[in-house]
Amino acid sequence: ATTATTITITGAGGQIGYALLFRIAAGDMLGPDRPVRLRLLEIPQGMRAAEGAALELQDCAFALLHSVEVTDSAESAFDGASIALLVGARPRGPGMERADLLAANAGIFGPQGAALNAVAADDVRIVAVGNPANTNALIARASAPDIPADRFTALTRLDHNRAVGQLAEALDARPDDIHGVAIWGNHSASQFPDVSHATVAGKPVVDALAERLGGHEQALVWLDDLFIPRVAKRGAEIIEVRGSSSVASAANAAIEHVRDEQSGTAWTSAAVVSRGEYGVPEGLVCSFPVTSDGSGYRVVEGLDLDARSRARFDASVAELEAERTAVRELGLL
Ligand code: NAX
């Protein structure tokens, strides 16, 4: 029998955790041939919720699920982990300043990075989902000097999928006919969802939009005034309409992020540790268009960005730099 892959989910007692666990155990992340061993990490207040989810996992009697452990110890949770989904984070409370938020999360992601460094499997891959996701990944990495930088990523796949969904609707196309969408920058409202290299059924998306909207100018207006803000602020729209934040779509994106990184994929988007691509300062965890050959995400290089695109991307990178500076000034990096 194949040995089970150890997967650790932090914040497993929360909403996204609840949406993730059952799909992972059903084989949606690693496929129908790879059994899994789940480790659920929570803080003491979240333990009962995680334990309850573990009971329900047992009640599913999933063939691929070899074991479930619930713990509030990072060292136990990450022991031998090959995949770590860092979902648990400190949300911004009322009146909380950005510095407080960064500090609270550094207090979570720093120790988790250190625990991963000490006990995770040699092949561990880590994705930060909890916000501020990019900077949380940066902090975890800084505490894990023995883990190669390319093992650390942050989730922008939800933003990517949101962009594809918007285009599919506007172009009356199927999502899988759309290729080459890119999310550049931070997983925040400053992100730049870019369609300038995207195609729909082989035709440039911008041309297809121009045909539908009555001209190139109209297509650019639609992109600037409707598409980009709607994708960047979709999280707030979901909260307003649903009365609760994105959960199932976020879990789905996390599953696709890990699945595609492991099994290989053509162009998608993910935040990875910059090696200086596109002039992004080294070490920032920045979203780029990426591909994977199964050994990890690699930035798609050599794309042309026009001045307007470059300005949007630069603004988001500046925000990432400001977050890094703030964490450094707090003495947390
Ligand atoms: P919930 O508040 O429902 O769950 C978070 C869970 O994390 C709680 O059960 C809490 O007890 C636990 N937790 C807190 N600190 C922990 C620690 N130190 N160790 C282990 N567990 C800890 O939030 P949920 O809706 O599940 O969202 C989780 C995170 O995902 C949030 O930070 C949210 O902002 C972020 N998101 C990120 C997205 C992305 O695309 N990158 C999209 C969805 C989501 O907004």
Your description of this structure?
Residues 156-325 form the Lactate/malate dehydrogenase C-terminal domain. Belongs to the LDH/MDH superfamily. MDH type 2 family. The protein is 45% helix and 19% strand. The chain has two domains: 5-154, 3-Layer(aba) Sandwich (Rossmann fold), CATH 3.40.50.720; 157-324, L-2-Hydroxyisocaproate Dehydrogenase, Chain A, domain 2 (Alpha-Beta Complex). The protein is an alpha/beta fold and 333 residues long. It is globular, with a radius of gyration of 20 Å. The structure holds ligand NAX. Residues 10-11, 13-17, 41-43, 45-46, 87-89, 91, 108, 129-131, 133, 155, 158, 187, 235, 245-247, 250 line the site of ligand NAX.
If helices are DSSP runs of H or I spanning 4 or more residues, what is the number of helices?
Answer: 11
Largest β sheet strand count, sense and barrel closure: 9 strands, mixed
Unreliable stretches covering 5 or more consecutive residues: none
Mean pLDDT: 97
What level of helicity do the residues show?
A: 40-55%
CATH class of the largest domain: Alpha Beta
**What is the radius of gyration?**
20 Å
Question: Strands of the biggest beta sheet: in what spatial order?
Answer: 3-2-1-4-5-6-12-13-14
Overall CATH architecture of the largest domain: Alpha-Beta Complex
Domain Lactate/malate dehydrogenase N-terminal: 7-145
Enzyme class: oxidoreductase
Catalytic activity: (S)-malate + NAD(+) = oxaloacetate + NADH + H(+)
Binding site for substrate: 92, 98, 131, 162
